[in-house]
Structure formats: structure tokens, C-alpha cells
């Protein structure tokens, strides 16, 4: 099993594999936002911060599609910075580093509702944020930091 993994890293390269994984995560999240924008629902998951049992905001279709477009663009940058679709250059490095700070900033949070340093911690969203959303942001942020720093 380990020999297969070593062969995969040698054949594809760690950067390309990291870019494919990062891009795939973001393309999936982009598709999920398009699904939500057109009325799709996931009953068991809370994705909007809440206070007093109510969502703090209700995103419009346009805003949700804008987030989907941004996530798709971020996924494309991951593929670019890793050399999967274009040759990495300074521009892709700068984009990757900026995206890295966006995701790491999201993981740190706003010190109220989202991120590891939030004050409101006893909601369903807070549980998902702590166990899933913030760790994914750290994973994505470090991936982009590596991809951006490597090509600088």
C-alpha cells in the first residue's frame, strides 16, 4: 500500500496532488452553493450562524451564487498554482497566498459567531463550525499557503 502511495507521489507530484484535492473540495463546495441557491436543502446540516435559535441572516440567491462563483474561482487557482492547468507563476502565487489568508482568517473567525474564537458556542452551527467548517478552512488555508509559497 505504501509503495502505491509513493509511486503516486512520484508520478503526479505532491503539488499537483495537493492542487487536485484542494480544487476538488472547492468545486464540491461551489456545486453545493449552487444547489442551495436554487432551493436545495440539507435538513441535518446547519450552515448559517444562529442566535436565539434563529439564523443571523438569510442569504439571497444572488449572494449564494456569488459565493459559488468565488469558490469555483478559488478551486481554479488551486489547479493553476499546482501546475495542473497552467504553469504556476507569481500571479498564481499571489492569488494563492491571498486565498490562504481568507481561509485562515475564516478559521480564526469574527470572535462572535464563526471560527475557533467565537463567543457563541452553544448552537448547532457552532458545533458544526468547530468540528467541520473551521478545520476544513485550516486545511484549505495551509494548502493554499504551501502552493503560493512554493511558487514564489
TrEMBL record:
Full protein name: DUF3995 domain-containing protein
Keyword Transmembrane carried by entry: yes
Keyword Membrane: yes
Alphabetized InterPro entries for the sequence: DUF3995
UniProt keyword list: Membrane, Transmembrane, Transmembrane helix
Residues passing through the membrane, by range: 20-39, 60-80, 92-109, 130-149
Coiled coil start-end: none
Domain of life: Bacteria
Amino acid at each position: 500500500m505504501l509503495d502505491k502511495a509513493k509511486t503516486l507521489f512520484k508520478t503526479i507530484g505532491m503539488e499537483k496532488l495537493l492542487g487536485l484535492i484542494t480544487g476538488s473540495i472547492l468545486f464540491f463546495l461551489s456545486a453545493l452553493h449552487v444547489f442551495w441557491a436554487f432551493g436545495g436543502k440539507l435538513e441535518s446540516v446547519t450552515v448559517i450562524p444562529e442566535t436565539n435559535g434563529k439564523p443571523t441572516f438569510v442569504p439571497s440567491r444572488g449572494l449564494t451564487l456569488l459565493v459559488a462563483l468565488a469558490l469555483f474561482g478559488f478551486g481554479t487557482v488551486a489547479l493553476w498554482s499546482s501546475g495542473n492547468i497552467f504553469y504556476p507563476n507569481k500571479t498564481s502565487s499571489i492569488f494563492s497566498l491571498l486565498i490562504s489568508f481568507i481561509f485562515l482568517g475564516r478559521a480564526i473567525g469574527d470572535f462572535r459567531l464563526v471560527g475557533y474564537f467565537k463567543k457563541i458556542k452553544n448552537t448547532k452551527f457552532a458545533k458544526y463550525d468547530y468540528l467541520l467548517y473551521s478545520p476544513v478552512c485550516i486545511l484549505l488555508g495551509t494548502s493554499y499557503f504551501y502552493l503560493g509559497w512554493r511558487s514564489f
